[in-house]
């Protein structure tokens, strides 16, 4: 995917800057004395030292194992070893990787500085002392032979880039005191198979962007303490790991506490929502209550049932001595599905037609109850007015006719789903693959930031759009396939509908214009400038390098926007070669390693925005020009 190259260039530019800065540090790292082949630099207190570089151009060329002592004596003075200084064992200057394979760090060391072991490409084993409190950025950058890491228990922060490019790393153990994990901390550790995390409260650990970028989260097992699996599964980011195993000994604090999987729920009357409480200790007795049971009730298992419009606070209290509590704000709104049930009685019939007509005539509906007018939904088309089009839509629904546009509302944000009549088409470029599809609905636009926030309450971990930071109509991006599934599950719970990602065949058929297709090479035109935001060969013609708000270009034959360019889009299928057989409603291979990506983006040239262009990515892959649209 051409967009990936741009991201790599950005990462490499940051790396070049980082190395330039460390070069300056390197030249200031002169040593004060050498004992048993290791160089030491005195600290200002006159009593402690740090291990530092011996020779910046040929750093420890013959050292195979470094058993760092707790103390060293020089000129009759004994110094405690408390640090490993910047670039102390770095192999980045030398043309030949230094031979160091093993390091043992004593309990007296509290600090490992930036770049300390940068590019020690033969380093396989590191044993940390119990008192290491900080490990600097890029400390083990490209230690490509490192096989496993058990981080020290007192460590509170994993800095950005710490284990970037440790491609042989198979297991990592994270202590319970980690408060944050920095960007790209484990970037491109693609052989990582096991992460042992002792975090008892994962929601309290700050995840900066995607620290495990490039880790195959569909293959890597996340090992968590007993009693915490459910909490990890409900916790954003951690739930992107496909296999969460509850097999570590729990290590509780001395006092009790409770956290809920969510702090806010927005829902509709008659819906239920499961609140999950994570407590210390995990088997603490809990009691639940609602501040207003006329709005929402809650049972002993944390299942909230919405009763009527309004606001209520759900509280859970534990039986520990300090009475720990947690709360969730529940907002119950009018029905979110504009499903033609205009009078809200649970069915679509002639009474709904009467309801809409009476509203058109100013009679306030069929009920004399003054509250009826406020609770019904006579604007069944969602176009902001009640008129004959609403009557026609209710009648068509009664007759079983599909709606050209299905509208759904979530927290006051409208989703427009376009009906696509089924048909047969030739799929792919020069593939001659005949595919027949049944009718379905597909999103008129890509999922926007506005809709994402309405459903999830915040933006994805990696999302950024510097050119349009305050525009809610920008397509959401930097979402991996797994996170799309989390969003869709939450959306389905809020609406009671069955949204999903489109299959690759559905995506291409819709991009072609369905049975209204005019045979364009881009979605809606043969002139890409009419329908797509894309990258032009002349850099001066690209003033904004970020996704644009949706629906600013011309729609295609089905009234769909941005299916060529803007952001590329995830599909439901596993990626694989096309079958030559005729197929009906194909869903792709049964399994695989990569998921299908379609559509081109604002970072791609015109020839990559064709309606037949395919791409793929790991389910854990995300990039700022990759989003999705809904289907059902």
What does this structure look like?
The structure is a single chain. A hairpin with a 2-residue loop joins strand 5 and strand 6. The protein is α/β, with parallel strands linked by helices and 632 residues long. The protein is built from nine helices and 37 strands. It is globular. Strands 1, 2, 3, 5, 6, 8 and 10 form a seven-stranded mixed β-sheet that branches. The chain has a five-stranded parallel β-sheet with strand order 11-13-15-17-18. Strands 20-27-26-23 form a four-stranded mixed β-sheet, with no helix packed on it. The N terminus is likely disordered. It folds into four domains: 247 residues, Alpha-Beta Horseshoe (Leucine-rich repeat, LRR (right-handed beta-alpha superhelix)); 73 residues, Immunoglobulin-like; 49 residues, no CATH class; 210 residues, paralog of FGE (formylglycine-generating enzyme), CATH 3.90.1580.
Number of helices: 9
CATH class division of the largest domain: Alpha Beta
Characterize the largest beta sheet: strand count, sense, and whether it forms a barrel.
7 strands, mixed
Write down the domain tally: 4
- Number of distinct beta strands: 37
- CATH homologous superfamily of the largest domain? Ribonuclease Inhibitor
- Give the DSSP E fraction (strand runs of 2 or more residues): 15-25%
Principal-axis shape equals globular
Quote the CATH topology of the largest domain: Leucine-rich repeat, LRR (right-handed beta-alpha superhelix)
Helix share of residues?
10-25%
In round numbers, the mean pLDDT is 84
Class inferred from helices and paired strands: alpha/beta
CATH architecture of the largest domain: Alpha-Beta Horseshoe
The parts where pLDDT drops under 50 for at least 5 residues are 1-28, 365-376
- Rg estimate, integer Å: 29 Å
In whole angstroms, the N-to-C terminal distance is 27 Å
């Amino acid at each position: 995917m051409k967009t990936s190259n741009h991201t790599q260039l950005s990462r490499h530019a940051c790396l070049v800057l980082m190395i330039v800065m460390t070069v300056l540090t390197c030249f200031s790292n002169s040593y004060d004395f050498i004992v048993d082949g290791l160089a030491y630099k005195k600290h200002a207190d006159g009593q402690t030292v740090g291990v530092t570089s011996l020779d910046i151009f040929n750093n420890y060329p013959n050292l195979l194992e470094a058993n760092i002592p707790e103390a060293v004596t020089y000129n009759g003075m004994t110094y405690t070893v408390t640090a490993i200084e910047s670039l102390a064992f770095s192999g980045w200057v030398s043309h030949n990787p230094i031979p160091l394979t093993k390091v043992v760090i004593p309990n007296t060391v509290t600090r490992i500085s930036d770049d300390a072991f940068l590019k020690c490409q033969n380093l396989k084993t590191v044993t940390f002392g119990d008192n290491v409190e900080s490990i600097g950025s890029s400390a083990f950058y490209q230690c490509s032979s490192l096989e496993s890491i058990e981080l020290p228990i007192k460590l509170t922060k994993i800095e950005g880039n710490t284990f970037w490019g440790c491609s042989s790393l198979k297991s990592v153990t994270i202590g319970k005191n980690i408060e944050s994990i920095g960007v790209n901390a484990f970037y491109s550790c693609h052989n990582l198979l096991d992460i042992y995390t002792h975090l008892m409260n994962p929601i309290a650990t700050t995840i900066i962007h995607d620290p495990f970028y490039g880790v195959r989260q569909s293959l890597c097992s996340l090992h968590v303490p007993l009693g915490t699996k459910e909490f990890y599964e409900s916790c954003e980011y951690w739930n992107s790991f496909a296999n969460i195993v509850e097999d570590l000994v729990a290590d509780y604090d001395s006092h009790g506490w409770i956290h809920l999987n969510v702090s806010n729920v927005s829902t509709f009357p008659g819906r239920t929502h499961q609140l999950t409480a994570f407590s210390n200790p995990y088997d603490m007795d809990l009691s639940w209550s609602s501040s207003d049971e006329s709005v929402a009730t809650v049972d002993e298992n944390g299942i909230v049932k919405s009763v009527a419009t309004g606001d209520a606070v759900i509280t859970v209290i534990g039986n520990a001595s300090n009475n720990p509590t947690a709360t969730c704000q529940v907002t119950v709104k009018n029905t979110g599905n504009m499903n033609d049930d205009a009078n809200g009685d649970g069915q679509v019939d002639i009474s709904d037609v009467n309801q809409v007509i009476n509203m058109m005539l100013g009679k306030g509906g069929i009920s004399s109850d003054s509250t009826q007018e406020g609770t019904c939904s006579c604007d069944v088309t969602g176009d902001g007015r009640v008129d004959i089009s609403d009557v026609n839509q209710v009648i068509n629904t009664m007759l079983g006719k599909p709606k050209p546009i299905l509208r759904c509302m979530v927290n006051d944000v409208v989703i427009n789903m376009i009906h696509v009549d089924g048909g047969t088409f030739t799929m792919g470029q020069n593939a001659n693959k005949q595919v027949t599809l049944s009718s379905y609905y597909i999103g008129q636009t890509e999922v926007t930031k506005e809709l994402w926030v309405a459903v999830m309450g915040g933006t994805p971990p990696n999302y950024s759009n510097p050119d349009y930071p305050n525009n809610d109509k920008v397509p959401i991006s930097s979402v991996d396939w797994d996170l799309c599934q989390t969003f869709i599950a939450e959306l389905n719970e809020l609406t009671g509908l069955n949204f999903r990602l489109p299959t690759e065949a559905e995506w291409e058929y819709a991009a072609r214009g369905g049975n209204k297709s005019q045979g364009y090479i881009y979605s809606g035109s043969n002139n890409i400038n009419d329908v797509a935001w894309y990258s032009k060969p002349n850099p001066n013609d690209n003033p904004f390098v970020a996704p644009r708000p949706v629906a600013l270009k011309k729609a295609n034959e089905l009234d769909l926007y941005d299916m060529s360019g803007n952001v590329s889009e995830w599909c439901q299928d596993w990626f694989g070669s096309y079958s030559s057989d005729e197929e009906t409603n194909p869903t792709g291979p049964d399994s695989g390693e990569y998921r299908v990506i379609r559509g081109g983006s604002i970072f791609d040239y015109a020839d990559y925005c064709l309606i037949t262009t395919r791409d793929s990515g790991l389910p854990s892959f995300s990039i700022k020009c990759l989003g999705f649209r809904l289907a059902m």
